Amino acid sequence: MAHIGFLPVYAKGHMYPASTLALHLQQRGHRITFFCIADAAAFFQEYGLDSVVIGGASFPPGYVDQVFATLGKMKGQAGFLYTMRLFKNLIDMHFAELPEAIRNKRVERLHPPEILRLAWTRTCMNIVRPWTSPTHVCGS
Q1: Angle made by CA atoms 115, 100, 86, in degrees to the nearest 5
Q2: Which of 24, 54, 111, 119 is such that its CA lies 20 to 30 A from the CA of 95?
């Protein structure tokens, strides 16, 4: 059986279905590993799923609650730009840390939708729209 790695979106609406799929795959004999930030690791471990914490320096425990508290006070373009900066930082961390983490765990396959999400988000980050610029979205 295969060793399958998951790269979840760090929101419960994404983590529940990903963990359900992972549990079904695990029951069929596959080995499952989630690569996630500290705030998500306990969720997957609670279900008996292996997890590897990545981004510990940039995304310490409590990070997700802090982000949602800050974002909840924002409106309009400010909230959008804040979210895009968060996505950029998260994607940059994934590209910096995931290859080594995946090699160390000897993962054979990655859950495809999560890979596509990273590639799509990265592509969108490079699109310049008339109402914003890469400097506004990504910082200087």
Answers
A1: 55
A2: 24
What's the rounded Cα separation, in Å, for the pair 126 and 114?
Answer: 19
Query: Within a 10 A sphere around the Cβ of 99, how many other Cβ atoms?
Result: 10
| Sequence ranges of the domains in the chain | 3-138
Which strand (E) or helix (H) includes residue 138? helix 134-138
Residues 53 and 43 sit within 8 Å (Cβ to Cβ): no
At 95, is the pLDDT very low, low, confident or very high (cuts 50, 70, 90)? Answer: confident
- Please say whether the beta carbons of 107 and 7 come within 8 A: no
Predicted model pTM: 0.77
Residues 6+ apart with CB under 8 A from 83: 71
